[in-house]
């Protein structure tokens, strides 16, 4: 049993008892009950110990032996993008280009002539024809509207002719630095734009209004609290999103805690650096103490920067979307200003660039190691990079469902040798002493942390494929996976002293589940649902309340 100070004799506001509690606290790993006063945990222990804090005004919840875990943290998601994905044409799960066009056509029926129609979620790797699509069929179906459809990873998109025309993209348009305009055999743009080339079209899409931005944040907030997420690392937000978050927090409307990584050029970020980090806005509702740097593209669109050519496209080694000298300039400026740097690096070449930058910055900036710099994704690693995570104190911010989504086509992309050496190597990293903070990269993947937990311990998709798991030696244990989504993710956000585990004195963020994910057969975990989500002592989602 753990309690705090003399104040523990006062009655609790909320007690949840008759539970199986997994605390993520190594000193007190399991318990039966938890007591909350205000926004803090005051006792975690046996039913008798905790019920001793019951008073006339205490709300008491009988968990009926359900499992309780700390509020899940998604170390890397995109809150407003999740909200936006709920507003645009949903292309996730489409099995062909024809199905993409069918879904867009339904939306076009309600669109005014000239109105932009947006969609997200297509993945040519899920189609029988795994080649990138050509815009011609989409253009034929949408003669009166510009259409832009973002690939599932956000690192490529498909524009119809009207969108290409609005952006002035023609056969003579040059590839921008860090981007690629996909062209057909005659040199004509196919409509597919990779990484920085996306900006050619997206710059012409009407900007989101303040009201739309707040609506997106609230849509996403409601979605993630239903899934048991209590904190999200918002990976790459601009000033407008940050101001929207502050307004919603001030109004008491945004329930999810946010750890924001600002993004932008060095010129854009300099005033932000001058102002210094925000460690605690709205009683730990918002922290702004990190920056996001995108070093390369994504593996699915062959934009991840590799040390050797792609096995299924020997003509390319991917893209360094930010030149290494700019990655260094941003990282060293952030470090001198006291900000964590989170570098998106998927391919082994990009991961080497990131590690070289971090090692250089640690030599040049006193205290840089204490900023807990991170690599976001770390999907394909050269063997030489793996021990550097622990040696330099770099956090591996990884997404378990990326492995199980990508596994059908990764061998073809990079070949078996690179795959065995360093593809999604959670166990190799942990064995080398690295800390893994888990997330989903939503809306690239589903935001449900239980799917990530399941992928981490099985290396299988929700249907149980492949039997025995994909590269099963890289699985995490259940305790490791829970920690990756709780206390280790909190550590990556400099928040482990008040979040990430169920301990007296910490903020009262917890989740009740309808089954015990630490004990049930693994195949039951994807069907597990959240019964209760509590943030700061407030019940923000109750499955019994409709």
Descriptive overview:
It is built from 18 helices and 26 strands. The chain is an alpha/beta fold and 546 residues long. Residues 1-8 have low confidence and may be disordered. The strands form four sheets. Strands 9, 16, 17, 18, 19, 20, 21, 22 and 23 form a nine-stranded mixed β-sheet that branches. It has a six-stranded mixed β-sheet with strand order 4-3-8-24-25-26, covered by helices on one side. Helix content is 31%, strand content 23%.
List the helices and strands and how they pair.
Elements: E1 2-3, E2 14-17, E3 20-22, E4 30-31, E5 33-37, E6 40-45, H1 47-51, E7 59-62, E8 67-70, E9 72-77, H2 79-85, E10 89-90, H3 97-108, E11 117-122, H4 135-141, E12 147-151, E13 156-159, H5 161-167, E14 179-183, E15 189-195, H6 199-202, H7 210-226, E16 229-237, H8 239-250, E17 257-263, H9 266-275, E18 278-281, E19 286-294, H10 324-336, E20 340-345, H11 348-364, E21 374-377, H12 386-392, E22 395-398, H13 400-406, H14 410-422, H15 426-431, E23 436-438, H16 449-458, H17 478-484, H18 487-492, E24 510-513, E25 530-535, E26 538-542
Parallel strand pairs: 2-7, 3-8, 9-16, 10-11, 11-12, 16-17, 17-19, 19-20, 20-21, 21-22, 22-23
Antiparallel strand pairs: 1-6, 2-5, 3-4, 5-6, 8-24, 12-13, 13-15, 14-15, 18-19, 24-25, 25-26
Helix pairs in contact: 2-7, 7-8, 10-11, 13-16
């Amino acid at each position: 049993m753990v309690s705090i100070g003399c104040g523990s004799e006062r009655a609790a506001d909320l007690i949840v008892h008759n539970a199986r509690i997994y605390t993520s606290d190594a000193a007190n790993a399991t318990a039966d009950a938890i007591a909350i006063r205000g926004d803090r945990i005051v006792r975690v222990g046996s039913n008798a110990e905790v019920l001793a804090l019951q008073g006339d005004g205490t709300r008491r919840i009988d968990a009926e032996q359900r499992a309780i875990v700390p509020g899940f943290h998604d170390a890397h998601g995109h809150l407003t993008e999740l909200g936006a994905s709920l507003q645009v044409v949903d292309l996730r799960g489409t099995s062909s280009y024809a199905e993409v066009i069918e879904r867009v056509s339904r939306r076009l029926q309600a669109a005014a002539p000239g109105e932009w129609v947006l969609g997200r979620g297509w993945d040519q790797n899920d189609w029988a024809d795994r080649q990138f699509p050509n815009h011609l069929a989409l253009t034929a179906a949408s003669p009166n509207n510009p259409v832009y459809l973002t690939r599932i990873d956000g690192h490529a998109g498909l524009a119809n002719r009207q969108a290409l025309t609005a952006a002035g993209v023609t056969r003579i348009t040059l590839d921008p630095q860090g981007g690629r305009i996909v062209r057909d055999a005659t040199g004509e743009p196919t409509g597919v734009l990779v990484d920085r080339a996306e900006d050619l079209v997206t710059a012409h899409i009407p900007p989101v209004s303040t009201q739309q931005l707040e609506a997106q944040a609230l849509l996403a907030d409601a979605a993630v609290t239903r899934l048991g997420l209590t904190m999200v690392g918002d990976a790459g937000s601009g000033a407008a999103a940050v101001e929207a978050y502050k307004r919603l927090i001030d109004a008491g409307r945004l329930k999810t805690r946010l750890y924001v990584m600002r993004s932008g050029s060095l010129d854009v970020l300099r005033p932000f650096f001058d102002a210094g980090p925000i460690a605690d806005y709205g009683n730990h509702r918002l922290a702004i103490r990190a920056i996001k740097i995108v070093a390369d593209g994504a593996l699915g669109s062959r934009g991840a920067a590799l040390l050797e050519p792609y096995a299924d496209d020997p003509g390319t080694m991917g893209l360094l979307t930010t030149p290494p000298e700019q990655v260094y300039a941003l990282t060293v400026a952030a470090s001198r200003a006291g900000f964590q740097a989170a570098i998106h690096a998927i391919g082994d070449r990009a991961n080497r660039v990131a590690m070289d930058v971090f090692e250089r910055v640690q030599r040049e900036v006193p205290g840089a190691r204490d900023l807990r710099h991170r690599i976001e994704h770390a999907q394909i690693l050269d063997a030489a990079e793996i021990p550097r995570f622990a040696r330099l104190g770099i956090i591996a911010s990884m997404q378990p469902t990326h492995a199980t989504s990508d596994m059908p086509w990764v061998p073809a992309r990079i070949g078996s040798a690179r795959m065995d050496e360093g593809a999604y190597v959670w166990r190799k990293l942990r064995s080398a002493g690295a800390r893994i903070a888990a997330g989903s990269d939503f809306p690239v993947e589903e935001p449900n942390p239980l799917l990530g937990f399941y992928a981490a311990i099985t290396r299988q998709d929700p249907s149980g494929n492949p039997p025995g798991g994909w590269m099963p030696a890289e699985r995490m244990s259940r305790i490791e996976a829970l920690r990756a989504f709780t206390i280790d993710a909190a550590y990556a956000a400099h928040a482990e002293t008040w979040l990430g585990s169920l301990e007296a004195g910490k903020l009262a963020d917890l989740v009740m589940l309808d089954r015990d994910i630490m004990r049930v057969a693994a195949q039951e975990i994807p069907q597990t649902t959240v019964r209760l989500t509590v943030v700061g002592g407030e019940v923000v989602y109750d499955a019994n309340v409709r």
